[in-house]
Amino acid sequence: MPARGAAPSIWLLLGDKLGDNAQVEVIARALGLPVIRKTVLPKPEWVLGKPPFRPSLDHLDLERSDPLEPPWPDLVLTIGRRPAAAALWIREQSGGAARLAIVGRPKRWSDRFALIIAPPQFAVPEAPNVLRLELPLMRPDAAAVAAAGERWRDRLAAMPRPLTAVLVGGETKPYRFDAPVAGRLLEALAALRQRDGGSLYLTTSRRTQPAVVEALEHGLPEGSRLFRWAPDAADNPYLALLALADRFVVTGDSISMMVEVARLGRPLSVFPLPVRRDPATRVQRGLASALAPQGPLAGLGGALRRRGLLGFPRDLDRVRRSLERRGLAVPLGEPFAASAGEAGDELAEVVARVRGLLAP
After folding, report:
1. Half-sphere exposure of 68 toward its Cβ, with a 13 Å CA cutoff?
2. What count of Cα atoms within 13 Å lies in the side-chain half-sphere of residue 145?
3. Rounded to two decimals, what is the model's pTM?
4. What residues are paired with 167 via a beta bridge?
5. pLDDT > 90? residue 139
6. How far apart, in Å, are the Cα atoms of 305 and each of 55, 278, 298, 315?
7. Is the Cα torsion angle 132, 136, 122, 25 positive or negative in sign?
8. Buried b vs exposed e over 263-300: b needs ≥16 C-beta within 10 Å?
9. For residue 110, what is the DSSP state?
10. SS (H, E, C) 190-229
11. What are the tens digits of pLDDT across the range 296-329?
């Protein structure tokens, strides 16, 4: 903690995932205190692969990352597996003086984090250092959405209404998103357009596999548009669609896109992805369910987590179910809700808890 009267030193430890970083930035803006941003980037083999979770910088590309060196901060606010491992290393280097706050779930060693800000998809048990959220903190930048809408207004004006934006994510465990699943999405979209008319604007994202992009392109309904995401694309329509589309279809893997649309109060339909049915996935899901805090082997699961041998399970469907239960989304195929419900906002409570970590 900072000395009485001294300004606290706060590091935002960011990674290579823009959606993750945005949640940390939301807290930083609301906190209203000076922060130092430190971006840490993984080595190529760990961009998609999962490095061992331990207090270490071994998984980072130090030449491309910002330097992590003293004076150490009073507080590190971070998110994600790779930055969190670096945060644990910072805590060790500081002799335990640096306090850690993480958005999401730590893979293990939850007692080493002063605050765990847990969105609903993570089954983190109740504890004094855990703040559970009803919805993740991500939200679109209102000014950026409005500006994009002005730039694209004439370009989208000729598309028949209602204009349905289809926001496509990508495969993530334990869900399957391959070309056949893309075909099922196209069939559902064709039925939607036949029922309601209008036009479709599909946009892919970083995690969308090439085979899925090709399937969407080859099966695209006549008159529809498709944006193929690329890291250097200068004309991404995503923000403009948030501003100008009449309604949205989002694949169920993408929590960030679902929540951003919901926070805008826009009509939202979700296309859930099928769960993989291979034996390994079935065994993993069965064990995770049994060892979860509410499972039949919760005691064993808790003991393994305290020893740092087991992490907390993730259930992406919990976010989708929460949105549907609160009237913020419907399954694809059902009529869009006439008016969206209230997304709510727990940011003030998050900021209060973070400020509490800085009290002398």
Report:
1. 30
2. 13
3. 0.84
4. 203, 250
5. no
6. 16, 26, 10, 18
7. negative
8. bbebbbbbbebeebeeeeeeeebeebeebbeebeeeee
9. G
10. HHHHHHHCCEEEEECCCCCCHHHHHHHHHCCCCCCEEECC
11. 767 766 776 666 666 677 788 888 988 998 889 9
